[in-house]
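Hey, I was hoping to borrow your eyes for a little while. I'm sending you its amino acid sequence along with the backbone structure tokens. Take your time with it, there's no hurry, and the full record follows here.
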Amino acid sequence: MSLGDRVRRAWPASLVAMAVVATIVAWLASDRGFSTFLAIGIAFGGAAVAGLLAPKWPVAAFGVLFVLASLTRFDVELPIGAMRLEQPAIAVVVATLFVFRVRMSLPSIRPIVPICVAAAVYLAALAASSLLNAPDRGVSLRIVAWTGVSMVAGVAAYLLTAGAALRARAVERPTAWMVGAGAATALGGIAAAVLFYLVGPYIAGVDGPDSIIPRVQLWAWEVNLYAIYVAAIVPLALEEYRRRPRPPMAALVAALVAGMALGITRGAWLGLAAGVTLYALVLFRQRVPRLDLGRAVAVTVGGALVGLVLASVLLDSSVQLDHLIAALPPVPTATPAASVSPGSSTPRPLSGSPTPRPLPTPRPLPTLRPAVGSTDSTVAFRLDRIKPALDDWMTSPFIGLGAESYGQRHADPSQGGAPDHIAIMGLDVLYDSGLVGVAGLLAVMLLAAQALWRSARRAGSTGTAAAYLGALTVLVVAYQATNALHFALNWLLLGAALGFAFGTARRQPNEDLPVRAAAV
């Protein structure tokens, strides 16, 4: 038996042992709280599960990665820095792919080489600017490392899902995992909003106690990321519904849109509109039956209407105010002294008159901040940072000024002087990585769009390719109101999209007929 065979045979037991040891060591090195132990257990337990699944069930391993990455709100503070829940799983999956040689042949990897080179250009510019120009190199380089690990997750996602696209019956399996994770998030958001309405305002998952406009956050990093993530899943769910137009799938799509609406994020609405429109246009151009398109549009609009109603009822600011007033403790008051004669020792009420009662003292109302979602505050916040950011960028236009370095140079006066930030992805990428980084990231997007467009022109893959195009469009458009490129969630979605696009391209020629001559 060769050394490689021995390693592969001992791999499952080794993964379980390493997960147990790593969980104990990480917990001892942390604050040793129960919630921290739970997060560490999920991270390393999920890593072991993903590693065990990767050799024989690679799509399921991708699903575990995607679910862990969707829990963006949670991390674990360790002496070496914050650890995201999906990062151990990414390392384990990459190691497992290497040990078992899962689709790591040159023909499998060659199609994504140009995209990987473009992504490396962006990352190199970000690293160089962080090292040379960032005031706090340590903070910026940690963001660079985080982004690099997330990009590696995208490559792993490609390797795990590319094989599924080679089998006609398995092309929808990666999207099913993503739709399931997105549906769980949306339904959890709806449940959090209901609890807020009933017992709020201090409900985990609702960003409301210090704002006039409560918004659902659930287990996302912040409310924008929650709404954008759910919106990106909608085109994939629409394709699942188009394949199987049944009432449960229609209800699932409507729930996704309704759950997204509870984030009360204009960027997510714009991204959703752009993504669903592109998805429908691609199908229309490939002559998909109009009945399918009509159903998809109707379900999306219905879910949007339901979401708007839920948001206006469940997240009403007056409900929050009522809960806050009810939660205030009673104010103790003294009984007012009665008028008595000098010789009396105890005041007595007159015959037949009621016993005097203290008058209630008005309780102070809680102070609430201005509406987080108001147009004046959020749009002006973004526009006000364009000129200072461009002025800074002109000092290093080619490689930029370092990852997340705007806040190292500017304070946010509305947050008591806390580090400021740029909430526009295009401007943030330009500021952080310069023209070189923008060129690299733009090349990644264009090459991915080209691959998916070619896949959409092949029979049998039109709908799924169009759904991936729509999902990525949601992210690109919605991120112009924020920026979360360093999260692995984005790169996992991109990797799965590329796995589908290039996987279907490697099918036998007789499997791909012209779309216009085949039934979709």
